[in-house]
Amino acid sequence: MKxxxxxxxxxxxxxxxxxxxxxxxxxxxxxxxxxLQDSPEPGLQEDVREAxxxxxxxxxxxxxx
Length: 65
What we know:
By secondary structure, this protein is an alpha+beta fold. 23% of the residues lie in helices and 22% in strands. The radius of gyration is 10 Å and the shape is globular.
C-alpha cells in the first residue's frame, strides 16, 4: 500500500493521527497532516484504511503497491 496526502485539501482535523499515529502526524504550525511513512507495514494497514475512511476532507489516497 502506498499513501499520499493532498495537503491542500487537508483541514487539519487530526483524525488520521488518532487512527494511525505510527503513520501520520501534524505540522505544528497549521495542523496539516504529514506522513511518517508512505508504505506502512502490513500490521498498520487496517488503521491506515480507517484513517482514510474517516478523513473529513478525503485528503488521504491509498493505492496498492
